[in-house]
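call fold(seq) -> tokens
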Amino acid sequence: MPSRINNTNQRPTIPAENKKNLSRGQKAADWVTSSIGSWTFIIALFIVMALWMTINTVQLIFQTWDPYPYILLNFGLSSLAAVQAPIILMSQNRTSERDRIRFEYDYHINRKAEREIMLVNKELRSIKNYIQKINQKIK
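ret:
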């Protein structure tokens, strides 16, 4: 990447993430992460848990399949967490890779800006010296 920025008029480019280049697993990880990170999922999960506990607590109408300690519900939630954790980590790894590329891009842009500022300062110093010489000749 540094070779792309040697010319001061040249702009470095961030390689765009192409959705076509993603594997099915990466697409699925992104979809799952965006789904479980939504209010819709949280509210739906809360409603399912409330219904589960209500149905299994009220024994008058229904026959309960998971009485009070809700072992089956706990197992289901634990399984959900066990599956979600690695999927979220996969999505975060992709995000961190994109961030690394952006940070590298920013670093090179900052280096380019620093070089340009140094050139401008050098020119300003030469202009200042030239003006001082002119002032000395006038006096």
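Residues 20-138 form one domain.
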